[in-house]
Amino acid sequence: xxxxxxxxxxxxxxxxxxxxxxxxxxxxxxxxxxxxxxxxxxxxxxxxxxxxxxxxxxxxxxxxxxxxxxxxxxxxxxxxxxxxxxxxxxxxxxxxxxxxxxxxxxxxxxxxxxxxxxxxxxxxxxxx
Length: 128
Fold this sequence. Notes:
single chain, 128 residues, 5 helices
């Protein structure tokens, strides 16, 4: 599975570390920046995977051109997708693997879970 979920324990651990390192830091701003960065990276990985699925084999330059993502970020996303077993390198470019189909079958459910969790966050009311 593409590593995309951020656990609450992981967030709490990160916050504790940040509080120790940055006295008086705006914890919520730091948290939002971290989560936003992770979601941006996930979106980039999925955009790259979409292009590979639709246009395989496809090379780095064509991926960068089609997605308007800088080539160094395309390379990083390809490396992550390859480590997850979702694509593999070939002479003419990146291609999908057998695992890609299984991942895509589960993708909507994973995105729905992220959406559900964000809705749950909205329900948390803290009295001041």
